[in-house]
Amino acid sequence: MKVGIDKLHFATSHLYVDMAELATARQAAPDKYLIGIGQSKMAVIPPSQDVVTLAANAAAPMLTAEDIAAIDLVVVATESGIDNSKATAIYVARLLGLSKRVRTIEMKEACYAATAGLQLAADHIRVHPTKKALVIGSDIARYGLHTPGEPTQGGGAVAMLVSADPQVLALDDDSVLLSEDIMDFWRPLYHTNALVDGKYSSNIYIDYFQDVFQEYLQQQSMSINDFTALTFHLPYTKMGLKALRSVLPSADSAQQNRLLAHFENNRYFSRQVGNLYTGSLYLGVLSLLLNDANLKANDLIGLFSYGSGAEGEFYTARLQPDYQTGLDLGLPQRLARRQRVDVATYETLFKQQLQLNATDQQIETANDPHRFVLTGQLNEQRQYLDRQQS
Ligand code: COA
């Protein structure tokens, strides 16, 4: 029985900042951000969106009544969650109108956890093939204004419906994992922005990719020439390019050109959105499948998932004949319709997030076009609005 991703959708903010403009404001050469980091636009997340609303906005448009009736597992992976105890998935299940007979959990291991959620969901469906599972990676990446990590911020959520006989990708049961206690990136409870040793984390990322990819090839008796495309966790798109380049010399020259061409489609959306933390690998998959004209049924896709701290996983998936049917086909238009904000507005919005204290707070939502918005905090509880219910 095939098990895997049946539907794949994405939500981010309706606002972005231009990276050349941000570079100029930070006295950096625009090409450092555009080429050196590999980012053209960065999503600016307004205070009216948090990981709950982003997750619900990603999942709601793809779910039919039949899907909702079949879902009995909801996993939300996040490293920018809103509560130290209660799972983001419980809020999301309520906003989506899911059954109360559902298992709802939050998973955390930096940018890796959506992959853990996906593999857990796939195993769940292998045991319960008539059910469906919803896995969402939802995050707002914050390093802070005027920090080296600032151009690698962003935010959004990728929602994946996992089922038997999936429309998009059938997952192979062939993961290679690596996990060690490493301090390359972390966020103590008292910090709202991540702490990172940026150069060190980029080096560890490459080391992890090399390790799990080479081990995978050895275990499966395969070579790099056997893959149609390799996809990567993309904290910034140059990171994936560096990883790809680190293994390209082992491919023949035609295959090197093919992998580089597929990579441009893999990174196309991330270049316009920025870092999603947990969702980044899967936005890259969506980007490849929506933008690449040179794909066909049964193509073998390699996926490298990385979370600082650190955990890496390499696994593969097979493209299904009707994969376009399960994709977020409206995404290119939604990204093109976003509104550009200047650097001063981005900085103001960055500082205007819901304050992490006990006071009642109200958030302006009039300019946010999304179905689910955060309206504020009352009696220490976040208040969410579903515009289709109001
Ligand atoms: N034109 C083209 N490229 C330029 C350039 C220019 N004018 N100026 C600089 N660059 C290149 C640099 O050569 C470098 O490329 P390289 O990494 O291939 O050598 C790149 O732009 C970045 O420059 P650098 O000086 O290294 O940037 P930085 O010290 O400001 O930090 C990060 C970059 C990525 C380390 C920083 O943004 C960060 O810490 N990000 C968060 C950590 C992260 O995402 N880790 C990933 C693992 S999950």
Automatic annotation (TrEMBL):
<dbReference type="InterPro" id="IPR013528">
    <property type="entry name" value="HMG_CoA_synth_N"/>
</dbReference>
<dbReference type="Pfam" id="PF08540">
    <property type="entry name" value="HMG_CoA_synt_C"/>
</dbReference>
<feature type="domain" description="Hydroxymethylglutaryl-coenzyme A synthase C-terminal">
    <location>
        <begin position="264"/>
        <end position="355"/>
    </location>
</feature>
<comment type="similarity">
    <text>Belongs to the thiolase-like superfamily. HMG-CoA synthase family.</text>
</comment>
<dbReference type="GO" id="GO:0004421">
    <property type="term" value="F:hydroxymethylglutaryl-CoA synthase activity"/>
</dbReference>
<keyword id="KW-0808">Transferase</keyword>
<dbReference type="InterPro" id="IPR011554">
    <property type="entry name" value="HMG_CoA_synthase_prok"/>
</dbReference>
<dbReference type="Pfam" id="PF01154">
    <property type="entry name" value="HMG_CoA_synt_N"/>
</dbReference>
<protein>
    <submittedName>
        <fullName>Hydroxymethylglutaryl-CoA synthase</fullName>
        <ecNumber>2.3.3.10</ecNumber>
    </submittedName>
</protein>
<keyword id="KW-0012">Acyltransferase</keyword>
<feature type="domain" description="Hydroxymethylglutaryl-coenzyme A synthase N-terminal">
    <location>
        <begin position="2"/>
        <end position="165"/>
    </location>
</feature>
<dbReference type="InterPro" id="IPR016039">
    <property type="entry name" value="Thiolase-like"/>
</dbReference>
<dbReference type="InterPro" id="IPR013746">
    <property type="entry name" value="HMG_CoA_synt_C_dom"/>
</dbReference>
